[in-house]
């Protein structure tokens, strides 16, 4: 990645409301119908560009089960994506689709998730993200520690996402899709809200 505009292109492509509805209709036992909405935070929120993320079942969009802030940092050969939890996240539920509600969010509300930085590279036709190596991004599921094994691909119109949790000792799959990646299309776009 050589152009300083790439972090802008990446965030413009990711700033959208994504749905996997076709996949959920085709393969209901394996894929729940979910939406992932990533909304640009105002310029100056953190250095560079940040997106507020809500991940929810389609039937309860205003009660997301994962809320994060993604902070994008342009580096010489790639983009570093820091992953943050939001304290008292219930206060912000719904803000991904209600931008005025996002203005009360500040950097003090964030808690960085150690080991969960993601490295994003330009492949020539898409962006590909993967968690930093070393099994350091620990996700506790039902009392058991797992490490994140993920990959996502973003193009202008589509996002493919493959998040799984594995047992640190055996590498066995503990959570995540056994039927392949989630395939998301855009149902709304917020590219014009990305400022840098
Ligand atoms: C976990 N997903 C995670 C974690 C990271 C990412 C860092 C571990 C720490 C955390 O809970 O935040 C990161 N995954 C990403 C990023 C993208 C991605 C940056 C690109 C937007 O796909 N996560 C998604 C998918 C969806 C998903 C759209 C379906 C595959 O963004 C699922 N990710 C998912 C789940 C967890 C997770 C269910 C575990 C959360 C938990 O059980 O606490």
From TrEMBL:
What processes in GO biological process is this protein linked to?
protein-tetrapyrrole linkage
Q: Does the keyword Lyase apply?
A: yes
Q: Which UniProt keywords apply?
A: Lyase
Enzyme Commission numbers on file: 4.-.-.-
**Keyword Lyase in annotation:** yes
**InterPro entries cross-referenced by the UniProt entry:** CpcT/CpeT (IPR010404), CpcT/CpeT_sf (IPR038672)
Signal peptide bounds = none
Membrane-spanning parts? none
Q: Which CDD domains does the UniProt record give? A: CpcT
Q: Which domain of life is it from?
A: Bacteria
The record, for Pfam families, names:
CpeT (PF06206)
Q: Which GO terms describe its molecular function?
A: lyase activity
HAMAP family, from UniProt? Chrphore_lyase_CpxT
Q: Which family does it belong to?
A: Belongs to the CpcT/CpeT biliprotein lyase family.
Q: Main role? A: Covalently attaches a chromophore to Cys residue(s) of phycobiliproteins.
Spell out the PANTHER family in the cross-references.
CHROMOPHORE LYASE CRL, CHLOROPLASTIC (PTHR35137)
Indicate what this protein is called per its UniProt record: Chromophore lyase CpcT/CpeT
What species is given as this protein's source? Leptolyngbya foveolarum
Gene designation per UniProt = cpcT
């Amino acid at each position: 990645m050589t152009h300083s505009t790439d972090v802008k292109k990446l965030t413009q492509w990711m700033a959208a409301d994504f749905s996997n509805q076709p996949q959920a209709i085709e393969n209901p036992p394996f894929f729940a119908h979910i939406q992932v909405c990533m909304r640009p935070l105002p310029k100056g929120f953190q250095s560079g560009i940040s997106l507020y993320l809500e991940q929810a079942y389609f039937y309860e969009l205003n009660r997301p089960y994962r809320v994060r802030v993604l902070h994008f940092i342009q580096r010489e050969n790639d983009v570093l994506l820091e992953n943050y939890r939001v304290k008292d996240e219930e206060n912000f539920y719904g803000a991904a689709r209600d931008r005025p509600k996002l203005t009360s969010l500040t950097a003090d509300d964030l808690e960085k998730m150690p080991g969960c930085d993601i490295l994003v590279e330009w492949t020539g036709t898409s962006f590909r993200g993967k968690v930093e190596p070393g099994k350091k991004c620990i996700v506790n599921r039902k009392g058991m520690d797992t490490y994140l094994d993920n990959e996502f691909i973003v193009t202008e119109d589509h996002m493919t996402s493959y998040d799984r949790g594995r047992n640190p000792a055996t590498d066995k799959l503990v959570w995540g899709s056994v039927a392949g990646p989630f395939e998301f299309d855009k149902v709304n776009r917020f590219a014009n809200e990305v400022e840098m």
